Description:
Layout lengths: L3 E2 L12 E5 L3 H13 L2 E5 L11 H14 L2 E3 L5 E6 L4 E5 L4 E5 L1 E4 L12 H4 L35
Parallel strand pairs: 1-8, 2-3, 2-8, 3-4
Antiparallel strand pairs: 5-6, 6-7
Amino acid sequence: ENCITSDGFFELEHLPRKVVVVGAGYIAVELAGVLKALGAETKLVVRKEKAMRGLDDYISDTLDEEMQRQGIEIYRNTNGVERIESDGKLKTVYLKNGEKIEGVDVVIMAPGRLPNVAKLELRNAGVKTLDGGYIKTNEYSETNVGGVYALGDVCGKVEL
C-alpha cells in the first residue's frame, strides 16, 4: 500500500519530487533513468554492490558510473527494503542494512519479472526449463525439443 510496482509507474498523474526505485535489473535502472531525466530526485536501492550485475563488468561498471554522473543516488549492499512507513503524504523507506530514506513521494518496487509460462505445461512437451521457470534455449533460440523456439523475457537472457 505504500509503494507501487513498475506497472504503476505508467499510472502516475504527476512527476514525484522524490522517488525511490527498488531493484537492480533493467526495469529498475530504466525507470530510475527516466525519472531522473524528467527532473525527479531519484534514489536507486540495490541489494548487492551494483545494478545489472548479470552484465559484463565493464558494462555494469560504466552504467553505474553514468547513473551517478546523472545524479541518481545509489544505495548499495542494502539487502533490500525492511519496511515503508507513511505519514499520509510522504514516506520513509527503511533498508535492511539500517539506512533510511526520508521525505519520499513515491516508492517503486521493480525487482524484475518472472516468466508466465506455467499454463504452457512445458514439462508435458519435454521442454527443459531453468531456475525461475525460464525456458532453456541455445544461441539460436531453439529449445531442446525440435521445432520449438522461445524468445524474449521467457528465456531470462539479457536483451541488448
